[in-house]
């Protein structure tokens, strides 16, 4: 489309309602500025990277630079992977990503510390946890006979619970 004043390429397109009728005006940058319109020096960047960075800044805030680069030294989870997936990788993540988690907890729950219900203590729960830990260790060291014995012991405890 060409400018209605000088026949250069039109980059500014205005639509106005005048006396109930629609009036379109097409101008080049120079003619638009001469008409008193203020235009940005450069067009907005709508590339994928720019759009993603803008979305991240809106949802994470000014901590985006510091948090986006942080990674848990234990499980190697990156903060941005947590933000996209919604799951933490290990208990250490709560400390590593604290600056990003506290505002979210405040927004979701209205508090940054637990004030709700607590799980009831189940009889034998600590024994079950200990047995499961021993089972994992036995499998890791490939002691399958011990692992089978521990598995059977866990099943027996679960049946009686």
From TrEMBL:
<keyword id="KW-0742">SOS response</keyword>
<keyword id="KW-0227">DNA damage</keyword>
<protein>
    <submittedName>
        <fullName>UvrB/UvrC motif-containing protein</fullName>
    </submittedName>
</protein>
<feature type="domain" description="UVR">
    <location>
        <begin position="130"/>
        <end position="155"/>
    </location>
</feature>
<dbReference type="InterPro" id="IPR001943">
    <property type="entry name" value="UVR_dom"/>
</dbReference>
<dbReference type="InterPro" id="IPR036876">
    <property type="entry name" value="UVR_dom_sf"/>
</dbReference>
<dbReference type="Pfam" id="PF02151">
    <property type="entry name" value="UVR"/>
</dbReference>
<dbReference type="InterPro" id="IPR025542">
    <property type="entry name" value="YacH"/>
</dbReference>
């Amino acid at each position: 489309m060409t400018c209605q004043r000088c026949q250069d390429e039109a980059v500014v397109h205005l639509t106005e309602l005048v006396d109930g009728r629609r009036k379109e005006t097409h101008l080049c940058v120079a003619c638009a500025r001469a008409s008193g319109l203020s235009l940005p020096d450069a067009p907005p960047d709508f590339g994928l990277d720019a759009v993603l960075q803008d979305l991240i800044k809106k949802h994470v805030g000014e901590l985006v630079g510091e948090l986006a680069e942080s990674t848990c030294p234990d499980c190697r989870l990156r903060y941005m992977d947590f933000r996209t997936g919604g799951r933490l990788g290990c208990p250490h993540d709560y400390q590593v990503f604290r600056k990003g988690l506290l505002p979210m907890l405040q927004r979701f729950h209205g508090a940054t510390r637990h004030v709700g219900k607590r799980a009831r203590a189940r009889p034998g729960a600590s024994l079950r946890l200990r047995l499961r830990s021993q089972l994992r260790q036995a499998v890791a060291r490939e002691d399958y006979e011990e692992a089978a014995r521990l598995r059977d012991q866990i099943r027996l405890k679960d049946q009686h619970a």
